[in-house]
DNA sequence: GTGTGTGAAGTGGTTCACAGCG
DNA sequence: CGCTGTGAACCACTTCACACAC
């Protein structure tokens, strides 16, 4: 079944919200309530949830615990993904320590950096290799996803080397450039400066 | 004139690309070329650029330098925005040091943290205040935008306190929660964990 | 001939409105 | 009755296709 990107984005948010509600002990929730908490229209919530079968109770709402489990199953991974992170600067380290980044769905198997002080060491329990060895290590460890947190100038090069290994299926790019990758590689970009620029642009436009 | 969000996003990317081309000394560029480099359709590029008047030359393409200046003007700020950053953890510090974050368009005027080791000090040249003083400092310094890089559990509280000052018009949220803010406050969210979850979800779906 | 600018057509996602079930 | 589930209407953005300027 085909499922649109914005829908997946919202599913992840429903899931996060439900985690909270479970913790708070709330038993039942309506599309109305969920919508208000996440700033979505109630009809949007219902449509999203209906894609995966009738899960709510008419006249009542959604059973929090049940819905939470349901969405967990939709988002579940068939297995643990193997991830490599390239660029152990401030941002890279921030990600490593990030709580929302501890997940059963993947494991960060290798770090890469150009800094000789870091190469050969373990950082937060994960071995750091030279960026020159990306292809080899990625291939050896069968890494399927790489996270790029290097400066923009190095990002394309890093991506190319990682893809050479032939095992990489997805890239999460934090560098402020748009990468070129083959069509069969999934690419997600988190572009912090673009986000800020957009915000400032619309602020300006509201002012006027 | 109304201009859509996806268009602004692309404009920022054209701008970045053109900076490169200017540096490389390229004189002329076609919608075709730009599209290839950024993975957009050429027609998309042309439509985006045409919103702001005829800027290209038919049969030739776009004059790189001229187009770069043109988009600079579109994205320009009327004045320097005053920004506060709440949460000087790894991510906050990463942002402070981030090169793509040095801009003429804004200045980070204040930092906030709960860590007493940081409060009262200057960090990367910017004074750090107690998170308890957000309302007061934001009001005093007339801060218009706040960047939130605190843990999810604290984010809504921080946002509420900043908004109390009455000067905040926009929020850039990095915490993995969806904030509730009044309708007249612009909200941009950079949700790293959602982005990764989405990537993994679509990886799974391609596998099957 | 070549590449832009743009109305018109197409696509995909959101919202409505109401039937249907608990 | 109340709230879900969902086809249909709507809306926004993208892509096409071609006239037009260089």
From TrEMBL, chains A, B:
Endpoints of the signal sequence: none
UniProt xrefs under Gene3D superfamilies: NAD(P)-binding Rossmann-like Domain, Winged helix-like DNA-binding domain superfamily/Winged helix DNA-binding domain
Protein name: Redox-sensing transcriptional repressor Rex
Pfam families linked: CoA_binding, Put_DNA-bind_N
GO MF annotations, alphabetized: DNA binding
Keyword tags: Cytoplasm, DNA-binding, NAD, Repressor, Transcription, Transcription regulation
InterPro entries: CoA-bd, NAD(P)-bd_dom_sf, Rex_actinobacterial-type, Rex_DNA-bd_C_dom, Tscrpt_rep_Rex, WH-like_DNA-bd_sf, WH_DNA-bd_sf
The CoA-binding domain, residue ranges: 77-178
Species in which this protein is naturally found: bioreactor metagenome
One example of a Gene Ontology biological process annotation: negative regulation of DNA-templated transcription
């Amino acid at each position: 079944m085909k499922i649109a990107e914005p829908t997946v984005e919202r599913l992840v948010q429903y899931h996060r919200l439900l985690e909270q509600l479970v913790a708070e002990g709330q038993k039942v929730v309506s599309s109305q309530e969920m919508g208000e908490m996440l700033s979505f229209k109630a009809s949007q919530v219902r449509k999203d949830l209906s894609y995966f079968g009738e899960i709510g109770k008419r006249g009542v709402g959604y059973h929090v615990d049940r819905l939470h489990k349901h969405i967990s199953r939709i988002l579940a991974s068939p297995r643990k993904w193997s991830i490599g992170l390239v660029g152990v600067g401030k941002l890279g380290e921030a990600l490593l320590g990030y709580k929302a980044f501890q997940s059963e769905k993947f494991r960060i198997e290798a770090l890469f950096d150009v800094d000789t002080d870091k190469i050969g060491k373990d950082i937060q329990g994960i071995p750091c290799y030279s960026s020159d060895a990306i292809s080899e290590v990625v291939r050896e460890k069968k890494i399927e996803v790489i996270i790029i947190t290097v400066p923009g100038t190095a990002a394309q090069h890093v991506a190319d080397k990682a893809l050479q290994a032939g095992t990489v299926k997805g890239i999460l790019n934090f560098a402020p450039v748009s990468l070129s990758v083959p069509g069969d590689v999934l690419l997600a970009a988190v572009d912090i400066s673009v986000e800020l620029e957009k915000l400032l642009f619309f602020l300006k436009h509201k002012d006027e």
